[in-house]
User: What shape does this take?
Amino acid sequence: MPDVLVKNADYVVTVDRDRRIIRDGAIAISGNKIVAVGKTQEVAPRYPNADVIDARGKLALPGLFDTHIHNAQQLGRGLADEAISGPERLFKRLWVVESHMDAGDALCAARLCQLELIRAGTTCFADPGNYFAAETAQAVGESGMRGMIARTVFDMGQTNMGSLPKNFFEPTDTALGRADDMVAEMNGRFDGRLKAWFSMRVPVACSDDLLRKLGALAAMRGVGIIGHACENRDETTASHLKYGMGDIARLEKLGLLGPNMLLLHMGWVDPKELMLVQKRDVKVSLSPGATFHHAMGNINHGKTPEMLELGVTVSLGSDSAMSGNFLDAIRQTFLLVGGFHEARLDPKIIRPEVAVEMITINGARSMLWDDELGSLEVGKKADISILNTQRPEWQPIYNPIANLVYCAHGGCADTVIVDGKILMRDGKVLTLNETDLYEEAKDRAASLVKRAGLEQAAASIWPLQ
Ligand SMILES: [Zn+2]
Assistant: This one.
């Protein structure tokens, strides 16, 4: 692989220990690693034979993390809008779509999902689980992205929120055995671009026995557990009704809370539970887009400022095409910061710099990957996003971080590098065939919506002629 040299960048946002922002910056890559970061005039002469990416008029930053992404829900976009309640969304829309998919749908969905992520400047995602780990992994192999996958395990067909689809639950040990086989087979594939973890999709649909054994398996394999927790009012109430406590207290009782756990949403965590999250160094991924869209109460009831004050590692996720609906880490930063400014009547409560940490270094920490990823530093893996600032929404630039959070969006991504390989260059995705994918997605979606019986769910109230 030839050396790659990014040079003349107006700004290189390093997110290193000193949080340096380098004007007229350069980044040199050899193989899959960063070998130099500095001023163009110092770095460029040392790499005369490199493949040059001229980043004049652009801003380079660490490859973006989106730590809550459901690959399998991509073809369901628009089928959960205006769902009445949290349980209806889950049991009548999201899981209905997933349970009617075949392997071909899942592969198409994962390719499309990763295409959207790359186009938004995202280099690494965390997927909380589906039943199509092989197809999700195949798409990672093809797209060139970095990601973490997991296999869903449910051992309860009936919860006090609703019934699971028939093909969605298995006997406890069967589910665990299959998840463990998947981790053994997939973890570390594609030169380490793929991680495989265990999934705890929704705690109220998992028995105590399953959760305890899941914790033991994760410890044995040396991997993490990703799962939803304290997601909305109904789910929190359901946990209290069935188990006499909320998700976090239950996970503590079962011995699962630890630094290898990444919990999603967490909008309804109570103060006592929050202290446990801090004590056990549990990582948190928030999805402001999903709560804005689906009224989950994660901003109004959320405790992000308190989490930050306690030093909890907080990252951001777009959730899915059926939840947040758009997959764009940069837009998530605006929604989170703006959401808390509004809810707490305090425009300083979360600074834009903190939000940028959430989609870079904290994303890496959430996935136990910060030794290799999350900042632009010599020795780290070469995962880089380059944004085009020659656009009206970026002008003028006094503070590039403020513009990034308050004015920009993923569509500004121009060039994306993962593991030293260029996945998108000057706005052209090099690893996936976009036109073919859009055609295939259209055909598959038309069939899927019929099989799932959700034609009415997506119908416009305006006449479509
Ligand atoms: Zn989710």
Observations:
- The chain has a mean pLDDT of 96.
- Residues 434-451 form the longest helix (18 residues).
- The radius of gyration is 21 Å.
